Amino acid sequence: MADRGRGGRGGRGDRGGGGGRGGYRGGRGGGFQGSPQGQGQGGSFRGGGGGGGGFRGGPGGGRGGGGGFQGGPPGRGGRGGARPPAQVYTPRGGAPPVPDAKVTQVEDARQKSRKTNLSAAMGGLQLAAVGGFMPPRPGYGTGGAPITVFANYTQLIPSSDLTLYGYDIAEVTPEIVGRKRIQLMRLLVQEAPELTSYHGHIVTDFKSNLVSRKKLELATEAIDVVFKAEGTDEPLERATKYTIKVKYTKTLSVGDLMTYLSSTNPAAGQQYDNKLEMIQALNIFLNHYARSANNLATIGASKTFSLNSAGSQDTFDLGQGLHAIRGFFTSVRAATNRILVNVNVSHGAFYQEGELHQLMWAYGDRNEMGLAKFLKGVRVRTIHLPTKTNKKGETVHRLKSIFSLAKNKDGRKLAHPPLVKKSVGAGPCDVEFWIHDQPPQVSSVPGAAPTQATAPAKKGKGKGKPPAVGPQPAGVGVGKYVSVYDYFRSKYPHIKIDPKLPVVNVGNSDNPSYLPAEACIVLPGQNANAKLSGNQTRNMIRFAVRGPWMNAESIVNSGLETAGLSTKSNPLLAEFGLQVGNSLITVPARQLPEPNVMYRDFTKNNAQPNSKVVRVSNGSWNMDKIKFNKSALLRNWSWVAVWGWKRTRDQEQQVTRTVAKFHEALNTNGMTAAAPHAGQHIENKLTDVTKVFNEAPADRQLLLFILPGRDKNDNTALYSHIKTLGDTEYGIHTVCVIGSKFMSDKSPEQYFANVALKFNLKLGGNNQGVDSTRLSFINQGRTMLVGIDVTHPSPGSHNDAPSVAGMVASTDQDLGQWPGVLSQQTKRQEKVDALKDMLKEHLDNWKRIGRHQAYPDNIIVYRDGVSEGQYQIVVDQEIPLLRDACKEKYPANGPQPRLTVVIVGKRHHTRFYPTRQQDMDRGGNCRAGTVVDRGVTEEGIWDFFLQSHAVIQGTGRPAHYVVVLDEVFRHQEKLKGNKDLSGAANELERVTQALCYSYSRATKAVSLCTPAYHADILCERARRYMSGLFEGVSDDGSNAGSAKAEKNWKLHSRLKHTMFYI
């Protein structure tokens, strides 16, 4: 949470002048040019004001020039709201409740029964050896100091006799998708005569599933529904009739689920096969409420946002036509002895509601192609025609979706195609359409500027037929082209049209229908899927960053009601026999001790280095008077300063002096670094960057780029270009720094040390180690650690954007080097096709880089990015590929390695909040090392939550670790003589926590264990190579060819087997 508001950034000039292009009014928007509220970046149509303050405080003033990135601090805006002091969440009634003792009793009883029947229930060690899906928990962890924490869960208590009946929408004829399908499902549930007697007993996901409290007695599976628009009384005369096939799937007994969850005898082989289906049915029930309420907006199936929060602290202006709303995520979860609902605070970006022309002005930048992409799919209601009401007296709005702005390629196949005088974004005076001699059938949008009609309208009065143009008003010719401006000025003079604003197409490319922006009102609650700009991202973070106690209060005070978890808002709870707790639960937790971090002693002779233990405090430490464990040799390097504005000679000289200081820091921290070759000063142009690489000598090891802007969000295109050239075309390591931070006088030694970490890793060094006692058997040098992740295209990505899989692996027991391997695959496919070849390459690295004589005895895989529903894919498809790789590399007559696979989840919504002051850090979060494996988990699944890091701001998110295969940790317990194998749980937690401290790019513990974290960064690097594909292309596909060409990248041979991605 920001404690001070900043104004908008000054423009490109060193005095704030020369900002981005102006918007649709006021011409070009520059920097402040003497005005305290100028806004350089983006140049809005009014010239722009400064950014807002903290969302509790007053507005910040405009941010002034600031010169070069080293020219002293720029002017700041006024102070926003002050950050509230950290505190512990206090529930209603004061003291936090104690964890449910019955849950703990069942957990312990199940474990005792499992150990008593170990050979029968687990098959000894062999159950894991044959790759059984989800090996049972060998025991609960006992390491660390016991504490109690809040969890963002509340209990769902069903009536003991609750039975739900599931139905599948097996087929809809003719096919229907999108918003129309949602409306069709609404009509089915609310108005189909066959279901009239079941009103109040049926819920739906408005897509493909029905859940009923009563069994449906249907004469036939096929139900006919005539489509009509939302709010209308009667369907149109030519409305489509749909046949919906409703097929019974399963009977789901909540009592059976509770029997399974509360059983104390897992050895009896009890299993509830319908658990996932029951959880899905309960989630459909909860989400039905939000999808049915008019005052709520939803994102996906589980996020709900109140539309009544305008002007409150639950909304925030993101700039450029978007605002953020604070809402809530909900999901039903099964846990030992109970059913829980996970409720978390969530934030979404939404389009600014109201007049469309105001949204266009707010968007600001006069980039018509960008505006067309921004507005695509936005729903509007038209206001130029008289309003209608239904029988209930409710206004029936005429709704339409924006397809694009008017383009000169629209309607090319029509006999009289429209005349559009710009490639995209023409105004109403520059868009003309054909008017027939006889009144034609006009656009499907009543009153919209009509498009080419192929035949005169038929006579007669049919309900629902679109009105003909009829006799033309004075000034509008017939049998010729007329502009949208003239048409609306004559026919709808009450609509005041700005000729500068683009016309929108609410039809499609083949059959366009045009409306001026002033005739459209943007509907509320529309989620914006497009990637946020740098400034919008900063504003979203500023809004979303809140202390954990604040989120806990929001969940209890408004979240339960907003999400329909209160009978006050959702009467169906009582109808279905469900009760929901009105408070957060508490669960047992433990505080694991922090491991020691090891460096080389600064005071010792480098020829005989000694290890030095660094003091760790709440997951953080510094590198004062210490050196890297293994130093890399940097022989040939240089630097490049990229300027976004006109520079002075003094500024250039200051860059040179700062680089010289940084060179000293490289050697101080342990590297053997030669002085850099003469640097360069270039403009912020991609062509200038390309020239730098073209002119670099063949033996150049590394280039340091000093970038303009405030942070990486200001340099995405530049950063992507640098990394693509360096990694794939020239084989030169690159390190990018933000000039304002690199040149700052504030703690330069620490900043230089952090940058030096990257230098050393890229060139093969080893920065730090972790206390060997915490790494246990891994320190023996016979275990390889592997990290795997897959990144997928975003919603706005190009259709040809692939998914990319990344794999990293350790090369020795020091865990200092993690070379990376990348592979493209079919988009949105989670299974890694090239897994076998990728692991084979890492096994070769184990011998080549690690200098081992034999392959590892153990392989521990941390698999990132897999959802719960995909665990089986990992077991059935990926683990066999890993075994195949080993079979091809290991001696045919020798033993195969033992394999453990742990899923790492970071996109979940579980959060924990401390219950006592002594258990929280200075930001109000749980301390680094907090682990939870009880209360919100299932005893039969080996999983745990670990918050390994110190949270810098906001509410901490623990990582979720789930074991899907274990042959390593149980084997280690067996070697120790521990027959019940329960120590494997402690061992896995200790090793995983220690790995969070071995992430060598920072002097902090990280939120994911190092193998998974590196794999995530590796995949993100691949996205940079294909930024045109992942960040989308223009609507007309003008850069589609270049974007598709990005798929042909290949890592340069000189960077293979290195940590190029750091």
From TrEMBL:
One of its GO terms (molecular function) is RNA binding. Residues 702-1027 form the Piwi domain. Pfam families: ArgoL1 (PF08699), ArgoL2 (PF16488), ArgoN (PF16486), PAZ (PF02170), Piwi (PF02171). SMART domains: DUF1785, Piwi. Residues 400-524 form the PAZ domain. It comes from the Eukaryota. Residues 16-81 have a biased composition (Gly residues). CDD domains: PAZ_argonaute_like (cd02846), Piwi_ago-like (cd04657). Residues 1-15 have a biased composition (Basic and acidic residues). Residues 1-116, 441-471 are annotated as: Disordered. PANTHER family: EUKARYOTIC TRANSLATION INITIATION FACTOR 2C (PTHR22891). This is Ribonuclease H-like domain-containing protein. It comes from Coniella lustricola.
